[in-house]
Amino acid sequence: MSYQIKFFNKSWSDFETPSVVATASEGQTYAYLPFNRSNLNAWQTTGSADANNTTYVVDFGTTRSVHSLILLIHNFKAFTVKYWNGTTYVDFSTPIAETANTASSSFYSFTSVDTNKIKITITACMVVDDDKFLFQFIATTLIGQLAGWPIISKHNVSKNRVINQMLSGKSVVFENTGFFSCNLSVERWTSNADLTIVEALYNSTEGFLVSLCGGSETQFKTTRQGYRKQDLFLMKCTNEYSADYYSGIYNSGVNISIDLMEVTT
Prior knowledge:
The protein is mainly beta.
């Protein structure tokens, strides 16, 4: 099953990564915006048509190992994604060649490749001859996907609101883009693979990407903020690692509680 929570390393195309550059055959002015970890601004073309075969190329500036590619909030119906092998652009082990895509956010995984460039070629949009847009381009490697199903609690989509009361008694509410946080917990966690992932998260020196839906929304009765495919957050553990064996029984599972909060780096 592919629905459990997934964790990825920070994107090689993150805006903090030195030397990464995007080149678009249309809309070049906005080509860098998919690196910004934001679902509020995007690369977008102007006056484009499907027949233009618009290209979007990400150059990492150096060779990177890539195992996963994630495109968040786009309107591509028919498109291909290929990587540079030093001579030409070639397919991944699992080719990305969509012809009738309907998903606005797409997760792809393949055998890891070492490359310095990835190219998207868009040949059709969901609405014929619409302008192309892409909010986030993420090229990364997988830390791991849980086999278990932690309880997700303290789910918090914060706007970081500040409330000032005026002399009239009315209030002014200031808010910004805010942050996301949550807790993952399991009693008697016995999966060695899952616990190895947990330890990797706590040992990480920089933020990691968390997808609570694991790239699929089908397991939810309704899809709410924080659980959507487009909700991929750069997070870190904010509590200390603790793995107490249940009731002190060493051949039992351990109790794990992970506090996660969105971070800037």
